[in-house]
Amino acid sequence: RDVALKVLPEAFTADPDRLARFQREAKVLASLNHPNIGAIHGIESSENTQALVLELIEGPTLADRIAEGPIPVEEALNIAKQIADALEAAHEQGIVHRDLKPANVKVKSDGTVKVLDFGLAKAVSSDASGASATTSATMSLTASATQMGMVIGTAAYMPPEQAKGKPVDKRADIWAFGAVLFELLTG
């Protein structure tokens, strides 16, 4: 099958934080199975090269589409619903994307939307029962890879608490979703 490869540049394989973030993305994607989230097929290593083997998703990013101007309301709502479905699936698994933006969303020719790039995703326990075994591994990676007061993500789509380096939860993705929806409708 045709796949996409996301290769970690060789210079970054020696950086433990970058490598941990790359491996975290693989684990996060492997824990998610949803038609609106880009799938992972595996992670490959060869000497100093690390690569994620991902679902090949043809089509423009939302950033490309928005650059052409406002998207008609009916189409924008269809796209927004699929993004919301993807976020809901991630949130149900205790995963916060933390970098939702038009460049991280693709629209296939059949209209299917795929949310991509979970490289900054963070696992959080959303209920009293705690994290599942899948998110527990991710949480330990996250704890070492991000620190309190560290700002990561794309500023234009960050809620105030994320921009200030404070802890975030699924509401950060909801904020970013609102910004993306606004751009869809206004261009």
Got a strand count?
7
Largest sheet: 3 strands, antiparallel
Structural class: alpha+beta
- What is the straight-line distance between the termini? 35 Å
Mean pLDDT: 83
Low-confidence stretches: 126-151
Q: Beta-strand level of the residues, as a percent range?
A: 15-25%
Shape: globular
Radius of gyration: 16 Å
Tell me roughly what share of residues is in helical segments. 40-55%
Strand order of the largest sheet: 1-3-2
The topology string of helices and strands comes to: EHHEEHHEEEEHHH
Summed up, the helix count is 7
Description:
It is a single chain. This protein is of the alpha+beta class and 187 residues long. The chain is 43% helix and 16% strand. It has seven helices and seven strands. The strands form three sheets. It has a three-stranded antiparallel beta sheet with strand order 1-3-2. Helix 2 (16-31) runs antiparallel to helix 5 (133-145) and helix 4 runs antiparallel to helix 7. The longest helix is centred in the middle third of the chain and has 20 residues, at 73-92. The radius of gyration is 16 Å and the shape is globular. The termini are far apart. The relative contact order is 0.17.
